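so the lab meeting is tmrw and i was supposed to have these ready like two days ago... anyway. pasting both below. for each one the top line is the aa sequence and the line under it is the structure tokens. i havent really looked at them closely yet so no promises
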Amino acid sequence: MLALSLETAKTVAVIVAATFVASGALSAVLIKNIIGKVLGAGLLAVIAVGAWSQRSNVENCVDAAQVTAEQIAAGSDASPVKCTFFGIEVDVPAP
């Protein structure tokens, strides 16, 4: 049977407690870094998807503006189309 003295048990307890505190602090730093990277990547993905969808909306709007410009040139009373990118109006050059 293994027996420990009181001083050995106190020393082991201090070492175990210090080890847990150090590993807890290290884990907190690692988790913070990982979560920061995941949130950053997620934010970039959301921006990329938003820009991609806005890009396709602008392409569709430009196509509609060209059709409307042709109709106006043919004498129609159609009003010009206004294109936006993230809510900002974009000038569409005449074809």
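ok protien two:
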Amino acid sequence: MIHAFKDSLKRLVADPEDRFHTHVRARIGKKATDHFEGKVKEFILRMPSVVSRIGRMISLEKEGSVVDRLAKYLLIYLYDPMDFLPEKNKGLFGYLDDAYFVAIVYIMILEKTDPSLGSSEDEQTKKWIYTSLESVRYLIPEESRKIDKTVSDIVTNQVLNYPAAVK
């Protein structure tokens, strides 16, 4: 399933009909340089491998733990077609909120799990995510704030249900 998801994202990146540039430009104007867009696209394209890593990490967690709740909520969010940036209407750009949610949950899981369970890959991914978050937050400020609050609420056990917590 992860491989199919990764392939689907790669097809969207290669699709000349995808309006990624148009969506980025509508939000930030002329600052939508090729470099900026490339960085954001890479952020989206890395999402499947980060989701896969989260799956391996949660297999070691207890049912009902913060990590377990974060991972389950993330899966619900990823499968909901009516999230902040619906893929149906926005193509590749519609996956940006999903990738942001994945990145924030991944960072939170790394903070909440035993450090000895992590790997050098986790450290590299964490550093890469931190360098990318600023660009994503700049591009989708309102959505990223809502996602940050939702993840914080999950960690503090404030989330009662989905989707009311994010919308």
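from a quick look at the 2nd one: The two ends are 27 Å apart (CA to CA). Residues 162-167 have pLDDT under 50 and may be disordered. will dig more after coffe
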